[in-house]
C-alpha cells in the first residue's frame, strides 16, 4: 500500500492532459449513444425505476481500461462494475459514474455527465466531470482550485438562506422560501452548480453512492462551497459500504442554517 506521501507523488506524476483526454473520450463515447443526437440505445431497468443503458456499460468498460493504464496502482469503484474488496487495500482508488443522470440521458435531455474522481485516504484528490451535451468540462485538484471550461470557479457567497437558489422541480412546504432554478437529473451537475454560482444550495435526505458525488464534491469544495453529509459531517470515500446518507452543498455562510433546516425536515418525515 502506498503511504500518503507516495500518493501525493503519484498524483503529481499523473499526465493531466491524458486524464482530460480519457474523460473527454468517454463523453464522446456516451454522445455516440445519446438519443439527443438521434441515437436509440438499448435501455433496461437494473431495478424498478433505476434505468441503465448500453452507453453506461460501454463508457464504464472504456474508463476502467484507460484509467487503469494511466494509474495501475489505483483500485476501482464504479456504479456499473461489480465491487471487489481489493480496492480497500489500495491507497488510491478511481471512483466513477460512467453516466450520471441516466434518466436525462435516455430521454435525450442534456442533464447528464461522466464523473471521475481519484480518492486517497477517504478524500478526493482529483475530480473531473464531462457534460458534453452541455459543452461543459469541469476539473479540480485538491488544494489547487476548480475550473469549468478552463475558467476558475468561485462558489456562491450568499449570506442568508431565504431566497437561496436550489436546483429543483418542486419544493416541500418547509422550503417554500427558496428559489427554484433549472434541475439537471445528474446530482453531480447539481452539486457543480453551487461551485459555479448557478445555485446556492443543494440538499438531499436520502441514501446515495460515492460514485454519484465524489468528483463533484471536490469541485464544489475547491470552488469555496461548504460540502457535508446531511448531518454536517465530512464525507469519507472508498469505504467498504460505498453509501452515504444525505448531502448538503452550500454557500459557506448559509451552511449552518441549512443543516438546521434539514434536521427540521427530517423530523417532519420521521
Q: Output the structural class.
A: alpha+beta
Instruction: Tell me the number of structural domains.
Output: 2
The Rg value, from CA coordinates, equals 18 Å
CATH topology of the largest domain, by name, is Fructose-1,6-Bisphosphatase, Chain A, domain 1
Give your account of this protein's structure.
This protein has 270 residues and is an alpha+beta fold. It has two domains: 4-152, Fructose-1,6-Bisphosphatase, subunit A, domain 1 (Fructose-1,6-Bisphosphatase, Chain A, domain 1), CATH 3.30.540; 165-269, D-Maltodextrin-Binding Protein, domain 2. Helices cover 31% and strands 28% of the residues. The strands form four sheets. A seven-stranded mixed beta sheet has the order 3-4-5-6-7-8-9, with helices on both faces. A three-stranded antiparallel beta sheet has the order 12-14-13, sandwiched between helices. Strands 1-2 form a two-stranded antiparallel sheet. Helix 2 (16-31) runs antiparallel to helix 3 (54-70) and helix 5 runs parallel beside helix 6. It is globular, with a radius of gyration of 18 Å. The N and C termini lie far apart (43 Å). The mean pLDDT is 93.
Amino acid at each position: 500500500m502506498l503511504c500518503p506521501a507516495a500518493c501525493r507523488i503519484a498524483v503529481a506524476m499523473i499526465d493531466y492532459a491524458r486524464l482530460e483526454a480519457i474523460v473527454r473520450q468517454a463523453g464522446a463515447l456516451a454522445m455516440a449513444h445519446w438519443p439527443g443526437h438521434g441515437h436509440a440505445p438499448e435501455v433496461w431497468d437494473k431495478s424498478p425505476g433505476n434505468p441503465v443503458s448500453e452507453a453506461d456499460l460501454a463508457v464504464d468498460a472504456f474508463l476502467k481500461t484507460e484509467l487503469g493504464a494511466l494509474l495501475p496502482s489505483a483500485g476501482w469503484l464504479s456504479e456499473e462494475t461489480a465491487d471487489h474488496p481489493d480496492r480497500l487495500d489500495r491507497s488510491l482508488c478511481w471512483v466513477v459514474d460512467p453516466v450520471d443522470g441516466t434518466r436525462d440521458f435516455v430521454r435525450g435531455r442534456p442533464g447528464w455527465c461522466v464523473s471521475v474522481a481519484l480518492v486517497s485516504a477517504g478524500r478526493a484528490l482529483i475530480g473531473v466531470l464531462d457534460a458534453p451535451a452541455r459543452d461543459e468540462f469541469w476539473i479540480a485538484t485538491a488544494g489547487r482550485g476548480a475550473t469549468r471550461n478552463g475558467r476558475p470557479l468561485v462558489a456562491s457567497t450568499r449570506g442568508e438562506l431565504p431566497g437561496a437558489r436550489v436546483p429543483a422541480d418542486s419544493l416541500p412546504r418547509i422550503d417554500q422560501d427558496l428559489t427554484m432554478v433549472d434541475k439537471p437529473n445528474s446530482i453531480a451537475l447539481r452539486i457543480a452548480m453551487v461551485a459555479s454560482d448557478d445555485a446556492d444550495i443543494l440538499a438531499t435526505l436520502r441514501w446515495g453512492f460515492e460514485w454519484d458525488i465524489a468528483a463533484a464534491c471536490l469541485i464544489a469544495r475547491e470552488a469555496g462551497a461548504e460540502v457535508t453529509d446531511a448531518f454536517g459531517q465530512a464525507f469519507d470515500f472508498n469505504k467498504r459500504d460505498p453509501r452515504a446518507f444525505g448531502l448538503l452543498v452550500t454557500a459557506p455562510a448559509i451552511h449552518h442554517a441549512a443543516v438546521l433546516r434539514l434536521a427540521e425536515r427530517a423530523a417532519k418525515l420521521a
